Amino acid sequence: MLVIRRRPGESVLIGDGIEIEILEANGGQVKLGIRAPKEIPVLRKEVWLTGCENEAASHSVTQPSLAGLVEKVAEWRSRT
After folding, report:
1. 16: containing domain
2. Cβ-proximal residues to 17 (8 Å cutoff; 6+ apart), any chain
3. Residue 80 pLDDT greater than 80, yes or no
4. Is there a single domain that holds both residue 75 and residue 47?
5. Less packed terminus of the chain by CB within 10 Å, N or C?
C-alpha cells in the first residue's frame, strides 16, 4: 500500500485516466473528488462488499425455498 500525504487542492494520479483530488480535510474526515473514465466503476468499498454478499446469497437460494417465499408473498398480498 502506498501512503502519501496530500493537502486540499492536491491530487494523486493513477495510471493515465484516474485522478483523485483532496477537496477538503476536517478532523477525521477527508472529502475526495475522483475523475475516472465512465467505463471504470468507482464504488465505496462497503457498497461493493454488500453487492458481493447479495450475489453470494442469491446463489445459495434453493428452488423449494424460493417457491415457499413466493407463496408467502402471494398470501401476504391477498390479505392486503
Report:
1. 1-42
2. 36, 37, 40
3. no
4. yes
5. N
